[in-house]
Amino acid sequence: MLNRGIYGLQLFTMVFGNVEPADIQAVGALSEDGIDEYASIILKFGEKGIASLCYSITNTFENIALIYGTKGTIKVSFV
Known about the structure:
Layout: H1 5-16, E1 23-30, E2 36-44, E3 50-56, E4 64-69, E5 72-77
């Protein structure tokens, strides 16, 4: 989580304006050494919206964030 997933959670905080999620659901796996290898997390922010995050140290994902709103979509690419 500290190597990958924390950055997505920080973005959610900025998008939803420091509002704590009303509900969090997550699934993932730890390595034999206790390191989180991957996870998928869904955060529900009440009427404000839903955020979804996937991260992995064992698989390759496109390093982007998509923010969908009523007036369009924002794609943020991370280098």
